[in-house]
Amino acid sequence: MNKRFGDRFWIGFGVGTASLLVGACLYWASPYAATWDEVDFALALRRYDVLAMQPHFPGYPYFVLGGMAVHAFIANPAKALSILNVLVLFSAAFPIVLLLARHMPRPAALWAALSVLSSSYVLLASARPMSDGAALGVLWWYIWAVEWARRRMAWTAQLLPMALFSILMGVRLSYIPFASALLLLWHEDWKTHRRLGRVAASLLAAAAFQFVWVAAVAATEGGLWPFFKLGFAFVVGHFSDWGGTAAASPLPFWERVCRFVLDNFLWTGMASRNAWLLAAYAVVGAIAWRAGRLGLPRPLFVSALLYALWALFGQNIDKPRHLLPLVHIALVFVWGRLLAAPRTWRFVLAAAVVMLQSTIGIGLLREQAKTPPAVYQLADDLRDKRQPFVVYTWEETRVLDYLNVPFPHKDVLHFSFFLQDKENYRHAAIYMTNHVVQGFEAQGIDVSRHVRKMKTYRSSLLADPVYGTITLYEWVDGAVR
């Protein structure tokens, strides 16, 4: 009787806490499109055009389609996408509970899932108009489907993970390393049945599911060949120029690894740059390690390892949000081990951590929703500034276009272009952002004596580590060293 009452209490407490958390995330979902990529997605809800980067390659059709559905009820396109992310992310509670419930009682599985989904940094990064939150939700449904298919002998069971992987790729293509879970599923099927026909059918079915969204996006771009040409140009640019990958970054290898593990994963991803949360997870991690009862399914472990390598070498090291899947998987491992042998004190510990990181996360969400991004502050300030003037920026110009500002602005990447172009504005004040100044310095051009600091705009660096701080400078003519 006591155990039944205890189970009902913890289930009720967990469901109530989850409901409040979802409500808070929906209410404080970001209404701002504050980065180049976020503007791409917001504009896509009004007019879908991959060539015009609405959104950028590969088009993210399932994410945009979901955003359009929410946009029918929410006027602000950025808010609509943020809300979609929250809804899909928290739907992952079901597959996580189903995965863990095979190893522990339902109340423990529920609290493990809640401990994962209430992660402060994941909440902050997901409640924005990017595809990260939705991709993370779909990812857990896909992982569950792979495990579900592994326990069944019928070939038709494999169709569900194939379909979900197609949806995952149509939401966020950079999660492609998780295809290894499907490959491992097919390998196990081959060891059991030894039939080439089954393997060939699996490959054809998986390709057909992917072709659905690829063909749909290609149709909007004039066919498969133009679509693949566009994709090739995008991939080359990502790895050779602006993508922040290991190939394009001047950061030394070991410094990149340390930043990846210590700053991006532990300090930011796990602890949201909060010392109390870091200490809490140090305790939880130590207890979970000693518990030693639950491991990750092999397909999930292999996929996580491959994704970690991809995130380290093929993603922008300046953006910790690329590690969101690794944060979630690590939390499933930690909480799965800790709660695999349910004890009242372990439930209390889980509840305390959930309350702590939920409080931190909601505070971060509220700050993000209430404080306009730095580029929005810049735009509002310059609206009231006396003209004529021109503003040179980097990626900020995409957001300024989105905000329909009434003053001229241009993105400038090379100092030679700037020298030539500024001659068109001889009778206008010339302003530039700190990213332009830093870009010139990276090209070996010292402009420190020819710029005067005007004002610095700040918003959450946790939400936007690249453009969370913007400093506006005025150009002062003279010889440049």
Descriptive keywords:
481 residues, mainly alpha
3D structure, described in words:
The chain has 481 residues and is mainly alpha-helical. Helices cover 63% and strands 6% of the residues. It contains 21 helices and 5 strands. The chain has helices at 2-27, 36-44, 61-71, 77-91, 93-100, 106-117, 120-126, 132-150, 159-169, 179-193, 196-220, 224-242, 253-270, 275-291, 298-314, 324-339, 344-370, 374-383, 396-402, 415-421, 434-442; strands at residues 389-393, 409-411, 429-433, 451-458, 469-475. The protein has a 5-stranded mixed β-sheet with strand order 2-1-3-5-4. Helix 6 (106-117) runs parallel beside helix 17 and helix 14 packs antiparallel against helix 17. The radius of gyration is 24 Å and the shape is globular. It starts with a helix and ends in a 6-residue tail after the last strand.
